[in-house]
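Q: Convert this sequence to structure tokens.
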Amino acid sequence: MRKLLIVLLVAAVLVGADFAAARVFESKVATALERKYQLGTRPIVQVRDFPFLPHLLTGRFSALDLAATNARARGLDLTGCSPAGCREAR
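A:
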């Protein structure tokens, strides 16, 4: 019984660390986007991948959500985009 509790505690700490790392990443990306594109308001960045840390280590994410208000995109073609998502963005 004691070993099971220890395993559950370690698993909870690891999952918590993964979620915390994702929140830190989201915050840093939002700050970088706000500064680089002079958005005026902080964009919303959400990581949808779990577990996050392996995706961070490989640099490949399957789902990131970005949202910004009053943002202007110059030279960005969003053909194929709808509120449901983008098939292809160039």
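The helical segments are 2-36, 52-58.
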